Amino acid sequence: MKIDLEFKTVKSYTMSSSNICNVNITICAYSDVADLLKTNKYDSIISIKNPKKNDVYTDMELIRRYRRFKNHPNQSINDNHLLCMSFLDINVKHRKESPCNHHILRIIRLAEQLKLYMNDKSDISILIHCIAGISRSSASAIILLEELGYTTNNAISHVFKVRPIAVPNTLMLEIYRDYKEMTQTLDALITLDSLNTEKIDEIKEQ
Fold first, then answer.
1. What are the backbone angles phi and psi of residue 88, rounded to the nearest 5°?
2. Cβ–Cβ under 8 Å, residues 94 and 171
3. What is the DSSP letter of 197?
4. Residue range 140-176, pLDDT digits in tens
5. Distance (Å, whole) CA 37 – CA 74
6. CA-based diameter of the chain, in Å?
7. What are phi and psi of 94, to 5 degrees?
8. How far is CA 15 from CA 24, 33, 149, 159, 184, in A?
9. Four-point Cα dihedral 148, 152, 154, 155, nearest 10
10. Within its chain, how far is the Cα of 59 from the centroid?
11. Per-residue pLDDT tens digits for 18-62
């Protein structure tokens, strides 16, 4: 049974008071990707599929998928805006096929690239797919939107508006939350260390 697509414009991402970029998110199943590539232009694509039984075959499939998007006659996507990954839609940690830190960090790095790209754009379109367009893709969309400046609640709300059948992968979101908590703790420690250093310098100068 083919799942109906949903395509909507989500919340504006404000770079500055004079530069607002509209982010258009499409979340879909893999079976719908070919038709969407023919009829729409995208600035970025996140492509997630299941790994093959053999690592070599998985790597080969990733390369083929990357080239398919990169060389598509209707697309002109920057290398830094194209993300192809392979992992299963499971919520069990420490399995070879599970989503892991590496996958989440790649989404975060993509968001960093898109922030720079959005500086001189009025709108961008992002295509995110997994096999069914339900779990891995919707979790990726939430993470990406949060990294682009959305609050957690707004990111989740917009993903469900775009894809009402979404059931975000909980392990991906858990890994992301742990990462955010860790970075916030590190930032706090760095700030505290900086304040302590300044205080010591002041005492030395007295």
1. -85, 160
2. no
3. H
4. 999 999 999 899 999 999 999 999 999 999 999 999 9
5. 7
6. 76
7. 65, 20
8. 16, 30, 9, 21, 22
9. 60
10. 21
11. 345 789 999 999 999 999 999 999 999 999 999 988 877 788 899
